[in-house]
Each structure stands twice: as C-alpha cells, then as structure tokens.
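ENTRY TYPE: paired fold submission
RECORD: A
CONTENT: sequence, then structure tokens
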Amino acid sequence: MHKKYIVRLTSEEREPLEGLVKKGRIAVPKMKHAQMLLRVDAEGSNWTDERVAEALGCHAQTVQSVRQRFVEEGLEAALERKPQARPSRARILDGEKEARLIALGCSPPPEGHSRWTLKLLADRLVALDFVEAISYETVRRTLKKTSCNPIGGSVG
C-alpha cells in the first residue's frame, strides 16, 4: 500500500520519543502514539500501519491518523489525543440558567410542598421557559456541583 504521509524523524525528534517510551510513566495514548511514530519512521523501522496496529493493539486507521497529524501539525500534535471538534451534545444549562436554577431552589417551595424536589425544579424550569426540556437528573448533577443544597437531604 502506498503511504500518503511519510514520517521521517530527526534525531532531535527521535530521542525524546525514545525517552518517553523508556520512561513508561506517561498516559497510555501518548505512549502508544510515541511507539507508533518510532515504528513507522521511514529512516528507522519503517513498519506498515497494519503491522504497527497489530503490535500495539489498535486499528490501522489510528496509526494512519497519528502519521497524518505528525506530518501536518508536528510532533506535539501527534503525541496528544485529537481534541473533539465540537462537544457531543450542547449543554442544557449554561451559567445563567444554572444561576436561575439555584435561585429557584433557594426560593420558597411551591404551595402544598414542604421543600423542592428535583422533579419540581425540573418542571418549574420548563414552565418558566428557562429551558425547553430538562430531566431531574440534569438538575441533580447541576446542584451537586454547587455547595448550595436547596432541596434538603443528599443530592448524590
């Protein structure tokens, strides 16, 4: 198979990579990426992507991606995990909405209730048009991050 991105490590790049691999006290993805680069080096081992993938227990596409990032962006980009282009899901509660939730939870509970529950808070946020929809679990996680506990008892 013809390789589109050829890795040629200089001695200034190879030495730190070998040091990382020998040290062994770094994050596993960074260690694997360093091992990949050392093995696909055209001036060194020059292994195929498939052989490297088999040796390191990953997919050949991963090896190709690391190779591409090294050629296009440099050594540091190839060693680190690729950052997510965008979050998987948009946050339901931003800072302003979190503040409104806490303020709502610190206010007196609705008529007929002795205290706020997670379900009551979630329903009230929807009723007041702060959010279109929200689960009580999202409310629980948000309140757990704060030191304020407006619903009484343990939130998790």
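RECORD: B
CONTENT: sequence, then structure tokens
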Amino acid sequence: MDSLRRIVHALRVATRASERAFGLGGAQLFVLRQLSAKSGQSLSDLAARTHTTQSSISEVVARLVRNGLVSRAPSSNDRRRAELSLTAAGEAVLANAPETVQERLLRGLESLDERTQRALVDSLESWLTASGLDDVAPTLFFELAEGQTKG
C-alpha cells in the first residue's frame, strides 16, 4: 500500500503544482507533452500514446482546444479524421513545463522487462477484481470522468 500511496501522492502534488503554474492539471500537461512528440495525431493515436481510452482523451483534448492550447483540423488525406496539433500557446506552456509524473511512470514501466510488466499488470488486475473495483472506468489520473463534477 505504501508504494501506491507514494504514486498517488506524487501525482497529486504534481497536479497541484501544474495547476498553480500553468492553470492545467497534470493529465492535461501529460496530453500536451504526448501531442508535442508527434503533431497531427488523431484522438485514437493520442489515446494509444497515453495508454488510455479514446473517450478519456477526448474530454481532455476538448478542454485543451477550448483553452487555445491545441487545434483540431480535418486531415488533408481523410476528411473524416481530425488531426490534433499544439498551438503556439500550447508550445509556450511546454517550453516551461517540467516532465510529468505520468511520463516518469511510463518510462519506468517501459524499462522493466516484459515478464515483470506482465506480472505487475496481472497482479494489479487481480487486486482490483478482489476489491470489487474491476468495473471502474480507467481515466487519466485526476481527470474527471464524463458526468462527474468536482466536490
């Protein structure tokens, strides 16, 4: 439990610092960073890159678009596909933003061998099932799921 508490604490502290410094939560900053790695991604590309669902990423991207940090435009190759790009304001935020805890956690996970990664995933899934939490939707850390409000 202490390891889980350390992860949650690191995410909470980083989110508060990000909100104070940039007016963005840690998840929004993480999405900006993942989008900066490759411009022109679709929502499904970005969901894969952030290891989350398309509906979770859609809500975060919509907020970033409203805040003028991300632009959404139809693809020149496929008009049904929307391509996402950082705006100048989004690039300015990232120029001053530190690495996110999510990036550090992903890098750490990816540094583990495949067998260790699989054992970790299997153990966490077993724990969630045993706790009766296996039906909880996975969202980005500290982002509200659709229909939720702060409070």
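NOTES ON RECORD B: Residues 2-22 form the longest helix (21 residues). Residues 2-130 form a domain with the Arc Repressor Mutant, subunit A fold (CATH 1.10.10.10).
STATUS: closed
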